[in-house]
Design a protein that fits this description.
The structure holds 2 protein chains of 2 kinds. Chain A is mainly beta. Helices cover 0% and strands 39% of the residues of chain A. In chain A, the strands form 4 sheets. Chain A has a 4-stranded antiparallel β-sheet, with no helix packed on it. Chain B has a 5-stranded parallel β-sheet. The chains are: A mainly beta, B alpha/beta. Chains A and B meet through β2, β6 and β7 of A and α16 and α27 of B.
Chain lengths: 142, 845
């Protein structure tokens, strides 16, 4: 995946205006109050290590049953730690914001928009996520 | 690869402490200015801490001393050329040429070439057993030579010479100092101070020869003979020259820059040389006829230059050369005009020959201002006197009070509150009292946070006490109580929370949050609660209700490494393992291509396992009879042991059997922090039990129990808690001790810190554990018994539970593995590829 060379993710607009919904996994794959990682993109294409097309990547999915908003999806790649580990962090409330504390260096990324609380210049891409029956759907720009 | 750019090219020659500080400061501002920076360094390693160079002989590694890191420079976008000295500067063409002949253009040039040790031109000084004391390589050479030497001589009795003498002593040599002047440290100390220092150093076993000029060094049957003016001689095995420094100004001279009569590159108050495109900073620079051989003024020049380059107006106006240090264990301080050479200077002197203390203040003619001071044997007043001197504060009516021992126990300290706001507190990083107050008001409420925000006291550390004083008094003034709340979600300490959970028998985090907390919880309170639940109820950590509470290491029962792969540590109780099991570990490591390393705790760590491999690896290890080693948890790690009376001719008890018994009893116990233990079979202490949370040492009559030791970041010797115990009493005391700690310690508090913060300390702990003063010992034992009885190998339970195994999928929707985890081979084993290696592979693919 090409992420390895992305030294710093730049501020990109995260707004997905007209989502195009596609299935990504099953409800039973999610773990309550925690994260899992799903492979997203052209999963059929041949593996092309570290030069993979940018549309093939790990996405961290978080499930918070009973909360106002139950589902969040952000990039699994931690640009600060340079490893794909966001899904393995702890969901933490910081200054009233829901964040994910990345396991290696404990940076907090706001679940809602992926912005790093310790360094506002760093932002993870975020995606809309929704249940459709027992299937989990992700929204993308086609 | 060059691109056309109108960015300015900045070349820096030299990468010592000052050169590094310059780059550090520039990096902070370079976003906007965008210089293209190339750094040339003559040494083969990036900048390191020369101020603490001597600690290299006291067990400090080159890595510990490192200040600049290649990776850090890369992140800043600066190019660092190690081992690549510059041969010449062409000021006309604005280029520099390296010794290997490559040419580099510059728009602006910074000379940070430092100094070189001055070696007096005594015939014979080039002998192979003559050394200088400046670089890590010099120290390596000295160490090698000292390994077959009995005695060593340092030529030079200044600051660095005495440090070198101490180094020779540390290396086990009979050390001598030869000084040309009539007294030691003549730059900083007056005669009285110098004499006292010499006396003190001589009682420590260093021989001092003053007023000695060496005229000739010759070979004498494999030793060196030093001949002095006047006919005396000294025979020694090696010589270290430490007779001062000379500015490294060769490049400046050869390119026609203006240099001082006795060397040094002339600079103005902008740190510019006689060529407006060239700056000089640090020990190579000469400002108003003076070379500044300390790090703080060099840093100040570095900051001035960065300011000039980024269009700010900051000036260098000379620097204070006051210094406080400990030489061979003797405290020495020198402030300002120590010799009282100023017009009309008056001195106040205090001498206590009994206790070896000499203090002298130099005031102006009116007795109002402090011009200088000398302190030997006791530098307790240094910080106060320095503040009077630096900030021009009026002296009290009876200035002698400042250095006289107080008869009524009153402190004559110039308290933090008396300092003016603009007073400089940290001269290394130029931090004023005002800046410190600002960050305290801005939300830094611990010493660590203040240090981090201002860098104060992270240089030489001389202002640490004053800094703490200022922070503490400001917090008090703000009416702040240091609260012990776990985090914003629970207004309780860990101990209070433990009692709440125990008394109300709370089993889940949701329940706890609802009844006693607020908000949604965070990465502090979740793992803490999980640890308390485990200590009390010992349910499996991967039960549905606890999954979201664990740190990643607990969640996946393995230790996450920097690239997102994991390491695996099977339990090897007491460090005892059969050949068959050793072979299994080797087999598994080979099959899964794991890096293997023996740990400090007598176990084997297997690195580089991918998330999805963990269950397979553990299935194989468990089938071979292994259990989890809990290396991932805040829990008992390992019980180290020697081989004891079974094999050892000195052993008085069977330490291995005891280590096995202890480890198998407490394995799986969750605690506020990790717990390490050891059992030694005799007083020779080969298992190093006195550096453990619980240490057991065999005696002729039984076991001595030591508690609350700590290796790691803040080492602490364990305290002897009880002596000559029989097996059963030993176990009973450990049960009580551990459970009392688990119940009452703060979050992430090791036993060492816990004991130090316990009211009444060790005596109180003995009353609780041995005399049952609180009447809780039975309860503590029952609670420990419950934990011991409910032990399960977490991995064994996990691999037999399909629901728990689901957690170990890299992707929930694919069987692929993470192709960002890439290994390369080093010394025949895998290691994580660096970012550069990954990019290289990608580009050549």
């Amino acid at each position: 995946m090409h992420q390895a060379s992305a030294r710093q993710s730049s501020h990109t607009s995260n707004a997905i205006t007209h989502p195009h919904w596609l299935p990504i996994c099953q409800r039973s794959d999610l773990v309550s109050n925690s994260g899992v990682c799903a492979l997203w993109g052209d999963t059929s294409s041949e593996k092309t290590d570290y030069l993979a097309k940018p549309e093939r990547k790990g996405i961290a999915l978080f499930f918070l049953p009973g909360q106002e908003r139950q589902l969040y999806a952000v990039d699994n790649w931690d640009p600060i730690a340079q490893a794909g580990i966001i899904s393995r962090g702890i969901i933490a409330e910081l200054d009233g914001e829901l964040t994910i504390a990345s396991p290696l260096y404990k940076h907090h990324f706001r679940l809602e928009d992926g912005v790093c609380m310790e360094d506002g210049n760093i932002q993870l891409a975020t995606y809309p996520l929704a249940f459709n029956g027992n299937t989990v759907y992700i929204g993308c720009d086609k | 690869m060059t691109e056309k750019t109108n960015k300015q090219k900045l070349v820096v020659i030299g990468n010592g402490m000052v050169g590094h500080h310059f780059l550090e400061q520039l990096a902070e501002k370079n976003e906007s200015t965008g210089f293209i920076v190339t750094v040339f360094c003559a040494e083969n390693r990036p900048a390191y801490d020369r101020v603490h160079l001597s600690e290299y002989f006291a067990g400090c590694s080159a890595e510990d001393l490192a200040m600049g890191h290649i990776e850090q420079y890369r992140q800043w976008g600066f190019e660092l050329e190690l081992n690549n000295p510059i041969a010449s500067i062409d000021r006309e063409k604005q280029t520099v040429t390296t010794q290997t002949g490559s040419l580099h253009r510059y728009d602006q040039l910074v000379l940070a070439t430092g100094s070189y040790p001055f070696v007096p031109p005594i015939p014979g000084h080039q002998h192979e057993r003559c050394f200088v004391y400046r670089t890590i390589e010099d120290l390596n050479a000295i160490r090698t030579a000292a390994s077959n030497a009995q005695s060593g001589v340092v030529v030079g009795g200044g600051l660095l010479g005495l440090e070198a003498a101490n180094a020779l002593k540390t290396l086990g040599l009979d050390a001598h100092v030869v000084e040309f002047a009539p007294g030691l440290m003549s730059t900083q100390l007056d005669e009285g101070g110098s004499n006292l220092l010499q006396k003190k150093i001589e009682t420590l076993g260093v021989t001092v020869h003053t007023s000695r000029a060496t005229e000739l060094i010759t070979d004498a049957d494999g030793q060196l003979r030093m001949q002095f003016k006047g006919g005396d001689e000294l025979i020694t095995d090696m010589i270290v020259f430490s007779a001062g420094i000379r500015p490294q100004d060769e490049l400046a001279k050869s390119s026609g820059l203006q240099v001082g009569e006795r060397g040094g590159i002339v600079i103005d108050n902008r740190c510019r040389t006689s060529d407006p495109n060239i700056f000089a900073i640090g020990e190579c620079a000469l400002y108003e006829g003076q070379i500044f051989g300390l790090v703080a003024p060099g840093y100040s020049m570095a900051r001035t230059t960065v300011a000039q380059l980024t269009g700010m107006e900051t000036f260098f106006n000379g620097a204070d050369m006051s210094t406080k240090l400990k030489l061979l264990g003797v405290q020495v301080g020198s402030i300002g005009d120590a010799h009282g050479r100023s017009e009309g200077a008056a001195a106040i002197t205090f001498v206590d020959e009994q206790s070896g203390v000499y203090k002298r203040m130099i005031t102006d003619a009116t007795g109002q201002k402090l011009l200088g001071a000398v302190l030997v044997g006791d530098t307790g007043d240094y910080d106060t006197l320095l503040q009077y001197h630096l900030n021009d504060i009026d002296l009290p009516e009876h200035p002698e009070q400042l250095i006289l021992p107080s008869t009524d126990g009153a402190e004559s300290l110039l308290g933090a509150s008396a300092l003016p706001t603009n007073a400089t507190v940290c001269s290394c990083y130029n931090v004023s009292k005002g800046q410190i107050l600002d960050v305290v008001h801005g939300g830094c409420h611990t010493l660590a946070e203040v240090k981090d925000a201002t860098k104060a006291s992270t240089g030489c550390g001389g202002c640490a006490a004053l800094l703490k004083d200022i922070v503490d008094s400001e917090l008090a003034a703000l009416g702040m109580e240091v609260n012990n709340h776990l985090c914003t979600h629970f207004p309780y300490s860990r101990q209070e929370l433990f009692h709440i959970i125990q008394v109300e028998e709370i089993k889940t985090f949701d329940d706890l949050l609802q009844k006693h907390g607020s908000g949604k919880g965070c990465e502090v309170c979740k793992p803490t609660a999980a640890s308390i639940f485990a200590s009390l109820w010992n349910e499996h950590i991967l039960e549905q209700a606890h999954v979201g509470l664990q740190d990643t290491n607990d969640t996946f029962m393995a230790n996450m490494q920097k690239n997102g792969s994991y390491s695996v540590v099977p339990r090897i109780p007491g460090g005892e393992i059969t050949p068959e099991k050793l072979i299994v570990i080797g087999d598994v490591a080979k099959r899964y291509n794991l890096y293997t390393k023996i740990t400090g705790g007598q176990r084997i760590d297997l690195f580089g396992a991918r998330l999805e491999q963990l269950p397979e690896i553990w299935r194989e290890l468990i089938d071979a009879g292994f259990e989890t080693g809990h290396a991932y948890g805040k829990s008992l790690r390992t019980v180290k042991s020697c081989v004891g009376s079974t094999w050892c001719r000195f052993g008085v008890q069977d330490s291995v059997s005891m280590a096995l018994r202890v480890e198998n009893r407490y394995k799986g116990l969750r605690s506020p922090h990790k717990i390490k233990m050891a059992v030694s079979g005799c007083t020779r202490e080969c298992a190093e039990a006195q550096s453990k949370d619980v240490g057991v040492i065999a005696t002729e009559k039984g076991w001595n129990l030591f508690v609350a030791g700590n290796g790691g970041m803040r080492p602490r010797h364990a305290d002897l808690f009880a002596t000559d115990l029989d097996d059963e009493t030993l176990i009973r005391y450990i049960d009580r001790f551990l459970m009392f700690y688990v119940r009452t310690a703060d979050k992430l508090q090791r036993t060492s810190v816990w004991l130090e913060s316990l009211d009444g300390g060790l005596d109180y702990l003995r009353e609780v554990i041995i005399d049952d003063k609180l009447g809780i010992c039975t309860e503590l034992e029952i609670q420990m018994e419950r934990v011991v009885d409910s032990y399960q190998c977490e991995w064994k339970s996990a691999i037999n539970d399909p629901e728990k195994l689901k957690r170990f999928r890299q992707f929930v929707n694919s069987n692929e593995s993470d192709d960002n985890i890439i290994f390369v081979k080093e010394r025949g084993q895998p290691r994580p590829a660096t970012i550069e290696e990954i990019i290289e592979t990608a580009e050549s693919a």
